[in-house]
Amino acid sequence: QLRLVESGGGLVQPGQSLRLSCAISGFPQDAYAIGWFRQAPGKEREGVSCISSSDDITYYADSVKGRFSISRDNAKNTLDLQMNSLKSEDTGVYYCSADFKLGAWTKQTVQHMCDMGGAHWGQGTQVTVSS
Question: What pLDDT does residue 119 have?
Answer without folding.
Answer: 93
